[in-house]
Amino acid sequence: MQSANMLLKKIVRSSVLPFAAQHGMKKDLFPLSRALSLSLCLKQDNSCKPSEKLDLDAWKKVMKSGLQEEVSETVSEPKELSTLAAAREILEMWRLAGRSVPENISEEQLKTFMECPSKSAKKKYIKYLHLKELYKKNDKRKMDEKRERRLEAQDQVSKMDETKKSSFICLWSNTMDKAYNWRAAQSMIFGQPLVFDMSYEKEMSVREVANTVRQIVLSEGCNRRSVDPFHIHFCNFKDDSLYHREFVKYYREAWGKLLITVTDQCYTEVFPKDKLIYLTADSPKVMKTFDHDKIYIVGSMVDKSIKTGVSLARAKRLGLETAALPLEKYLLWSTGAKNLTLDQMMRILLTLKDTADWKKALEFVPKRKYCGFVNKPVKELKKSLDLINTLKIGKGREEVQKLFGKNYSKK
User: Fold this and answer.
1) pTM over 0.70
2) pLDDT of 263
3) Regarding the domain delimited by 191-326+339-358, which CATH topology (the fold level of the hierarchy) does it fall under?
């Protein structure tokens, strides 16, 4: 029996182990050989009958089945790799054909691509991945631009800080502030009053009130820097109102130091009615010249929906004189409403006060609202437009051409 065990070990070492070493299965076969030898020994101990023999055919079948399983496991990996490579080749062909294919695609995405049931589903999935990649690139580009703008803003702030640190610029700004404050203080005694009507809080939303306050802040700064500033009055101004809170947000500690007059009284109680003129775009009366003896009132209202007639109705209830700027007289109006912002009104009134020139004053009107200044009288322009319209229609064309040739030159 010992000789049989030795023979079995020689067979395993000579035939099976070299084959297993070539296929990387040597470690798994050692326990199997030991198990076979032990099983034979046990059989010898339990049964001493010489008729029992080792079933080598069954053992060969077991060994062949184990080898086939191991080989199938090793072969399955290259098949998966080959399918992924084929999927990448398909996507590369689609890209060359001009289809929308993502530049970077993972193995999981390739597997899901190959698992799609139909060709249309594969196309939709690849298009989805392509759009997803584009969105990511767009977000990254926006983040980079935002970072660049932030860095540029930081550089500008640092440069401004460096310039502010210089003694000459600090001295210049301090002296100019003192000069502006001196002019504003003089205007409170000798200047012409200009009233802002602060009674339109109920007609506006919170956002519109914030826009109104922003425009008034710009108006106050423009007035303070002018040569001959107005004495600004805030009438109908109530504490703890939306106006008050927005002004405190902008001015903070400087709100109590502004050189303006703030009162909760109406302008009719502060000034005589015969000197008050309410400036509104809805007024039928057109302002011809700037009167230095009058007190002009500007409605502190910004409305997105353009509520017509609100300021005109308020002025009529109080029995005040109204006036509108002569925009149609000097400007060829094209589009938009004839309502101007508060800071534009302030610049126009300051220019009229200093120069009395309507063309210089109306240059502050936004250029998108008009085509240019009127060179001829408005009546002549209307006549020429009527003649052109009749020529287009064709009614009495010969007669109109004769009239047009008599009244106007060929040019």
Assistant:
1) no
2) 92
3) Alpha/beta knot (3.40.1280)
